[in-house]
């Protein structure tokens, strides 16, 4: 292994330029003892003389082990504060983690994180030294393109570098770095950026086009390079990087929306937002929810007033939005994905609310029934036609609606028997047409028609239906949009029958008895009494039924 440290006296003895206020650290590793050798490695020895001629004190090692790297770097750190210009060249194998990159010594046992931390040279330490010389510090990195596979928490190669302000970083293959160092790096008057480009090196950090490392052919110290103007957003960016939170990065963007690091801040905010989302999604997927369980989630969300836009067992945008709103309202992170604990909490809230709704409906129905019975006592119970019609007008779906209609039918039948055949025939024609016009024609057909009361009552019913037709059409459309299968309709009828609401035959077909039962349920439940199902009615009606099934 070759070691060389040139002091100012040695430079003078060699007849080199008198100033030695520039410093270079050159480490080139290729012959590794326990990991694969660097097949494309090239020694950096040829660059030594050129750096000396340009006025640099050179600290150089070929195939340096950990102890030698530490020794050379310690010398570099000690002498750097007195130097005008700094050049560091590292060629060999590198490994990196999310936040650090290390330069490996030739005696590295492996490429693991413990080995890197304990034995390798961290580039953050190199950057710290170079940061004290803004506009006058160059870091050259020659990394192999055959790095192989990662080991645990480390990956081969150079990771993302946190480059201090005013530091120039040139990256490429070991061969290209060696070519630049032995060629135009210290050529007087040569543009560093053009020289790097000609060697296929990638530049980052401080990259002015007119950056010339050596300007005087005699070797005299070049005029100091103007230090870049301070970036006013730098302290805020440093704070954001230190805290590494969405809030910190957003504060930076609020103050410097077009700042130097605005794009990085936005990218990191998105990454931080995505990380919990991905984890939350994986957590819910691990629950392996069935479609019925998802329906129950949607049902609970609905009765808790977090509308999922459907109870179909499919978690689309509507369901995800409802879950997120529920999570936020209950103090959870609004990821829109459920955990087992949240699923339990939602189920408990849903069951509690279902019980409350049931109790509220029962209390409301008891009050309605009490008023219904009292009105029946005052009107229809006596059995006269006027009283029966008054009762049906107020309570068309009431407790005694069927009985009142039966009695009116009997009154009509008796009247038919008493009516003259011509009157009866005209009435039959009107009933068959069942329109407002047909009943008015019947009433105009004679001075005292036998079925006057029935005709007037039916005209009133039809007029009310016409007024409500648009609302009924909308209600019917809502029910159709639910696209309920026959088994769900049968379940609705079963629930209505269990509540004593008389939906008729349980066959999945909604007839007039079913519509009346639905209206009765909606009235008791404080819902719009249309006789047609909507999402709120279904969720409230079937609360607990899916899980029970």
Commentary on this structure:
The longest helix has 39 residues, at 340-378. The strands form two sheets. This protein has a seven-stranded mixed β-sheet with strand order 1-3-2-4-8-10-11, with helices on both faces. The protein has a four-stranded antiparallel β-sheet with strand order 7-6-5-9. The protein contains 23 helices and eleven strands. A hairpin with a 4-residue loop joins strand 5 (94-96) and strand 6. 52% of the residues lie in helices and 9% in strands. The chain is rod-shaped. It is of the alpha/beta class. Helix 9 (246-255) packs antiparallel against helix 10 (262-287) and helix 16 (421-433) packs antiparallel against helix 17 (436-444).
Indicate the multimeric state. Answer: single chain
Helix content: 40-55%
Poorly predicted regions: 1-20, 544-549
Secondary structure class reads alpha/beta
Using DSSP, what is the number of strands? 11
Protein name: Peptidoglycan-binding protein
Region (Disordered): 215-235
Pfam family, one: PG_binding_1
Signal peptide: 1-20
Summary keywords:
549 residues, single chain, 4-stranded antiparallel β-sheet, alpha/beta, 9% strand, 7-stranded mixed β-sheet, disordered N terminus, 11 strands, disordered C terminus
